[in-house]
Amino acid sequence: MVTKKPQEEKRESQQTVFISAYRSVSVRYILYSDIFKRLREKKGLRIVVFLKANDIEYYRKKLGGDNILFESVLFDKAYSLLRHNILSVFFVLVRRCLSGRRKGYDNTTDKVLQYRYKEDLSGSLKWRMFFQAVRMVAAIGSRTSFIRKTILASETFLFPGRMYDGYFKKYRPDMLVTSSIGNMIDSYFMRAAKRSRCKVVSVVHSWDNTSTRNYRGADPDVVIAWNDIMKREVNIFHDVPEEKIWVGGIAHWDFYFDDSFRPRSKKEFLRFCGLSEGKQIIFYGTSSPKAFRNTFDVVEQLLCEMEKDPFLSGAQLLVRLHPSYLNRQKGNEGLVLDRYKERMDGLKRIHGDRIAFNLPEVVVLNDDLDMTLEDMYILAEILKYSDVMLTEYSTLMIEGSIFDLPVINIGLYNFIDTAKPASYFEEMTHIKRIIETGATKNAYTIEQVCEYIKWYLEDPCRDRELRKKVVDREVDTNPGHAGEQIAEYIYELLHERMKVNS
User: Fold this and answer.
1) What pLDDT sits at residue 377?
2) Exposure string (b/e) for 239-255, b if CB count within 10 Å is 16 or more?
3) ∠209-364-417 over CA atoms, to 5°?
4) Under the phi-then-psi rule, with left for phi > 0, alpha for psi from -120 to 50, and beta for the rest, what region is 463?
5) How far apart are CA 14 and CA 3, in angstroms?
6) Cβ contacts of residue 499 below 8 Å, gap of 6+?
7) 12-78+159-253+479-497 maps to which CATH number?
8) In the prediction, which pLDDT does 251 show?
């Protein structure tokens, strides 16, 4: 009789899960929600978290434990292959413009992205020809799922993600959890997992990822979606069978619904933000400066209008900058925010207490940002205490609706760096469905911005039922318990795998 070694017996009783969470949004959605909290409490479960190498020690101190290990996600190596190998770039761009379709349910986002790439690559004959080839292959691929799957199979064969093979030999994991269905370097990790017969579970971390990101870069065993809308997108746009898609809810918004959110008093909140008592609050939740180059022009125009308008002169503007303003500039020469500080100081100097700026409570790491839980609570307080919200076609449209906060989209200036107007964002699939509810107002001039602000300040109940419609449709599964339910579902999948293997 052969006696098993102690380490072999331990391995049979212990299951191992890989979690790839190298993005700040992945950390927020998986590691800071009940998904990770519940999984780490499971007995006999070992979790290996994959992060960017220079940020590992920070998260080890913050999230480490006896059953929690950390490894480098090999970001630089994988990203270099993704972006600097011309054949890889070709496949990535093809998938960027590729999408499945079904009568009555088309993805408009891929058309918008094709327009953007066309403008970006218009300066060079070589790249124009390259992109025309990309568009031709994408157009052919969009006709049938067979061609799309053939394109993906070809890319998988050429770029199988062998840089991750060592991890699978070392740990022999039972499951890989990623926060996408194969975006960025996730595709390499997922392909390596499939070759190692490791179950792949994709937990989608953002509302737009299934329509604005690439056609899937691998073949996940299970995709965990936010809602039925996302489930249809994964099925139709990415050719993932319905039986492989499970709707779990929105994990990082659980605290909006489970009564764990304990906001400070309004007086304390106003003091924290540098706002005055007795004045209505116009909240401007900005987007990335890469996408919206003229945000500060809008702020300046709005402040000038507020000075002149008797109705608006009694209000105050709270501008919260997007976390990407706190990213490091290329070459690590300060932060992106540094380019705007002089203008911020000038606006404060001219308009005084009529404007206040709120910077996200993030930690600037070596390779990324830590979007802390504390900052999520601050945003929730802003949504709770504001009277009207301006945003730039962001997920704040949904979050504002959760707090019954009137929403106005700022559609001034241009769409990213193109000649199209900013309102071109309204053609994107995920944004279009919110716009179609009528729950938001969309302003294309500063005069419209002011008129909509006054209209809502006169009666904040306007469009309340439409905002409720957005919430009922977008946050319809496990509100307040999504993280817990997703963790339990992942654990059940592990047990199913264990039964199969036994």
Assistant:
1) 95
2) bbeeeebbbbbbbbbbb
3) 50
4) left
5) 19
6) none
7) 3.40.50.2000
8) 97
Q: What angle do CA 396, 211, 290 make, to 5 degrees?
A: 55
Q: Where are the domains of the chain?
A: 12-78+159-253+479-497, 86-157, 266-474
CA dihedral 76, 81, 84, 90 (to 10 degrees): -140
Residue ranges of alpha helices (H) inside 248-387 are 266-273, 295-308, 341-351, 373-385
Mind listing the pLDDT tens digit for each residue in 98-136? 899 887 777 887 777 666 666 555 567 777 788 888 888
Q: Which of 158, 183, 390 is nearest to 287 (CA)?
A: 390
Strand order of the sheet with strand 45-51? Answer: 68-72, 45-51, 15-20, 175-178, 199-203, 222-225, 245-247
Cα(401)–Cα(415) distance, integer angstroms: 24
Query: Cα separation of 424 and 372, whole Å?
Result: 32
Retrieve residue 220's tokens: 């996940």
- Is 266-474 a domain of CATH 3.40.50.2000? yes
For the segment 387-427, what is each residue's pLDDT rounded down to a tens digit? 999 999 999 999 999 999 999 999 999 888 778 888 888 98
Residue of 42, 45, 40 lying closest to 30 (CA atoms) = 40
Q: Which residues pair with 328 in a beta bridge?
A: 335
Residues in contact with 304: Cβ distance below 8 Å, sequence separation at least 6, in sequence order: none
Q: Given this model, what pLDDT does residue 62 score?
A: 95
In the chain, % helix, strand, coil (3-state, to 5) comes to 55, 15, 30
For residue 110, the surrounding DSSP H or E stretch is: helix 109-120
**Stretch (H or E) spanning 451:** helix 446-458
| pLDDT tens, residue by residue, 313-342 | 999 999 999 999 999 887 667 899 999 999
Residue located via tokens 């604005």: 212
CB-CB contact of 56 with 72 (8 Å): yes
pLDDT-above-70 percentage for the chain: 94
**CATH topology identical between 12-78+159-253+479-497 and 266-474:** yes
Q: Give CA 246 to chain center in angstroms.
A: 19
Compare 488 and 83 and report the one with higher pLDDT.
Answer: 488
Q: CB-hemisphere CA count at 13 Å for 117?
A: 23
- Residue in this structure with the two tokens 């992942």, named with its chain if needed: 490
Kindly report the pTM of this predicted structure.
0.91
